[in-house]
Amino acid sequence: MTATAPTQPSRQFPRTRRAVSGWVGSWNRLGRQTQFYGVTLRGIWDALVNYKVELLRLIAQMSLGIGALAIIGGTLVIVGFLTLSAGAWIAVQAYNQLADVGVEALAGFTSAFLNVRITSPLVAGIGLAATVGAGTTAQLGAMRINEEIDALEVMGIRSIAYLASTRVIAGVFVVIPLYCIAVQVAFVAARVGTTFFYGQSTGVYDHYFTTFLNPVDVIWSFVQAISMAVVVMLVHTYYGFTASGGPAGVGEAVGRAVRASLVVSSIVTLFVSLAIYGQSGNFNLAG
Q1: Is this prediction's pTM over 0.85?
Q2: Tens of pLDDT along 131-148?
Q3: DSSP the chain
C-alpha cells in the first residue's frame, strides 16, 4: 500500500488571495485600533482619579519641554513659529490677491475669517502632532520594546489608563493655552505683514478685522483645536503602544503615527468646520 503525499494548499489565484488577505488584515487592524481608542477614552476617569501625579508631570513636559528643549524646541515655541508663518502667509497672499481686484482694504477680513476657522486650528494640530505626538509615540514605543509596559501590567497597573489616557488628557490641557497663543501670534503676524510691509492704514485694517471677527467663531475654533488634540493623541498613543521590532520598529511607528495624524488633522478640520459652519459658512458679505 503506497503512502499518499500530504495535501498542499492550493496555489491558484495568488493575486486574489493577496488582495483578500490584505483587505481582511486592514479591517482587523482598524477593529483593534478602534477597540484601543474605546479603552483609552473609557480610562480617562480612572486616570483623573488614580494617576494625578503622572498627569501633572505629562502636562509640564508637553507644554514646555525639558531642559534646553524648553528654550528652542518646546511645543510652545514650535507652534508659535508655525502660526507666525501661517499668519504672515495669509497677509501676503490676501493683500496681493485682493489688490488685484481693488479691494485690498479687506485684508483685515481675511485674517479674522481664515485664521480663526481654518489656519490656526490646522497649524496647531500639525504642531501638536510633530512635537508632542511624535514624542509620545517614541516614549511608548521604547517602553514597549523594553518590556516596561508588560512590567506595569504584572504590577497590577492598568497600562492603557496610566500611559495612554493620561497623555490624551494632558494633550487637551496643553492645547488650550497653546491655542490661545497660536491665535494671537497669527493675528499679530497678519496685521504686521499687512500694515508694516504693505503700508496699509492700521485704522482700515483694524476696522475690517474687528467688524468680521465673530467671538462665537473663536469659541468654535477652540472646539476644533480640542477635538484635533484628542484625535492626534489617540493616534500617537496607539502606534506607540503597539510598536514592535526593536529601535527600528519604534522609528517606523513614529513615522506612521505622524503621517496618520497629519491626515486625520485635515479630516477633522474639514468635518468639524462643515458641522459648525455648514456649506455656506454662515457668512454673507454685503455692502
Answers
A1: no
A2: 888 889 999 999 999 989
A3: -PPPPPPPPP-S-HHHHHHHHHHHHHHHHHHHHHHHHHHHHHTHHHHHHH-HHHHHHHHHHHHH-STTHHHHT-HHHHHHHHHHHHHHHHHHHHHHHHHHTT-GGGHHHHHHHHIIIIIHHHHHHHHHIIIIIHHHHHHHHHHHHTTHHHHHHHTT--HIIIIIIHHHHHHHHHHHHHHHHHHHHHHHHHHHIIIIIS---HHHHHHHHHHH--HHHHHHHHHHHHHHHHHHHHHHHHHHHT--SHHHHHHHHHHHHHHHHHHHHHHHHHHHHHHHHTTTTT-----
